[in-house]
From TrEMBL:
Domain of life, per lineage: Eukaryota
Endpoints of the signal sequence: 1-15
Domain Neurotransmitter-gated ion-channel ligand-binding residue range list: 53-260
Protein name, per record: Uncharacterized protein
Gene Ontology MF, one: extracellular ligand-gated monoatomic ion channel activity
Species annotation: Caenorhabditis remanei
Alphabetized UniProt keyword annotations: Cell membrane, Ion channel, Ion transport, Membrane, Signal, Transmembrane, Transmembrane helix, Transport
Membrane topology: Multi-pass membrane protein
Compartments reported by the entry: Cell membrane; Membrane
Domain Neurotransmitter-gated ion-channel transmembrane as annotated: residue spans: 269-360
Length: 448
């Protein structure tokens, strides 16, 4: 029985293998048949339309198309739109800013109309190699310091051609533009940077440049974050400027930045407050602690001068006074005045010491003296009010009291903080109000 089963097993295996191969072969026949039918249907649909390469070949080869000739004799209209990708930096020392943008230009070229060719696509997406064969308005930023198309990893130029002959070109550009920095209100200031875009080769009679009809022809794709500034506003304008070859259309982009104040408050104003407060501690040390008060005042003055130098190192050398200059100079004046007050107190202490020594010598050498019941030697003819010396007799004659070092320190401990408080009110009110005026003037000037 077992021998019979073993003898029939190869036959069963061969039979099963034949069945499986037949099934696979039949499946392949069905698949190839369906694929052939699909390809035949696809080819039949594609047979009546024109491919992209054929369209470009028909448009540019053998038709007399000339990229150096303006497509329309009456002139071209080029619509421009700019998308701001990022603003990387604003440099006060060189008065410029860096940003990455997308520039979109659109115009109608009747010679590129391919509606009659039955295109397979609604529009053609092409690269910069095709653009090099087409007419372009040759636009550029005429006031930029550096402007270049990105090449990472290939040239970042996008070309789209519509059936009616409309050409849309998009460039990804890194541009370094100028800024007209006014630091008179620094650090409570607003700064304005601008770019001017125009056709370099064609005047207004040949190429008319205009912004797109969108609500914001220039807008940022994402939130602009800078260490020192916040993006306050983006303004656009279209102007006509005369040149020897005619009138040119200029598209102006004005970007207004508002400086972030908190960093300068933490690094400049707050340490200055602390330095001035420390200089006032000398008023409480007493009139006899001259060395300690001198060291405290001189160190405070050196600290604020060093701090002022660090701030000025990162700013351009302008010929006008900035807001931070007023603050630092007045702060140094307060510390310098505290040193002058210390000099007056030291002079009076030394004068008192000399006067007491002279008085003691005079008393010891004068026979007309008497000893009090407590053993204190006094002289009746030269008795003065307590705390007054011979040198201050003329001041006491009017009954106004003595200007002792202790009294001068007491008055200074009140007058210095009070004067500094009044200065703070005037300073902050003036520069904050001036900042609002500058903001309104910038917006009204651009809108007008």
């Amino acid at each position: 029985m077992i021998f019979t089963l073993l003898s029939t097993l190869p036959v069963l295996i061969i039979t099963s293998e034949l069945d499986y191969s037949e099934l696979v072969h039949s499946a392949e026949l069905v698949s190839s048949s369906s694929s052939h039918l699909h390809q035949k249907s696809f080819n039949s649909r594609k047979r009546n339309c024109t491919r992209d390469t054929d369209i470009i070949d028909r448009l540019l080869n053998g038709t007399g198309y000339n990229k150096f000739r303006i497509p329309q004799e009456e002139g071209m209209t080029v619509v421009v739109e700019i998308w701001i990708q990022a603003i990387t930096s604003i440099d006060e020392l060189t008065n410029d800013f860096d940003m990455d943008i997308y520039i979109t230009e659109t115009w109608l070229d009747p010679a590129l109309n391919f509606q009659h060719m039955s295109p397979c696509k609604g529009n053609l997406s092409l690269n910069h190699q095709v653009l090099d064969r087409l007419w372009t308005p040759n636009s550029c930023f005429i006031n930029s310091k550096v402007a270049q198309i990105h090449n990472s990893p290939f040239r970042s130029v996008f070309l789209m051609l519509f059936p009616n002959g409309t050409v849309m070109v998009n460039y990804r550009v890194r541009v370094k533009g100028p800024c007209s920095l006014d630091l008179s209100n620094f650090p409570l200031d607003l700064q304005k940077c601008s770019l001017i875009y125009e056709s370099f080769n064609y005047n207004r009679q040949e190429v008319e440049m205009k912004w797109s009809d969108a609500e914001f022809p220039v807008f940022n794709l994402s939130k602009i974050v800078l260490p020192d500034f916040d993006l306050f506003a983006i303004q656009t304008a279209r102007k006509q400027e005369p040149y020897p070859a005619g009138m040119w259309d200029e598209l102006h982009v004005t970007i207004i930045f508002e400086r972030r104040f908190i960093w300068y408050f933490m690094q400049a104003y707050l340490p200055t407050y602390l330095t001035i407060f420390i200089s006032w501690v000398s008023f409480a040390l007493g009139s006899r602690a001259i060395p300690a008060r001198t060291m405290l005042g001189v160190n405070s003055l050196l600290a604020i001068v060093f701090q002022f130098g660090n701030i000025m190192r990162n700013l351009p050398r302008v010929s006008y006074i900035k807001g931070i200059d007023v603050w630092m100079l007045v702060s140094m004046t307060f510390i310098f005045c505290s040193l002058l007050e210390l000099a007056i107190v030291g002079f009076m202490v030394r004068d008192e010491t000399v006067a007491k020594k002279k008085q003691q010598k005079k008393i010891s050498g004068n026979p007309s003296r008497e000893e009090s019941p407590h053993g204190i030697i006094s002289e009746r003819r030269f008795m003065f009010p307590p705390g007054c010396s011979d040198s201050t007799k003329s001041l006491n004659s009017c009954g106004t009291g003595c200007w002792t070092p202790e009294r001068i320190d007491s008055i200074s401990s009140v007058m210095f903080p009070l004067t500094f408080f009044v200065f703070n009110i005037i300073y902050w009110f003036y520069y904050i109000h001036r900042k609002e005026i500058i903001r309104e003037n910038m917006i009204n000037r651009v809108d007008g």
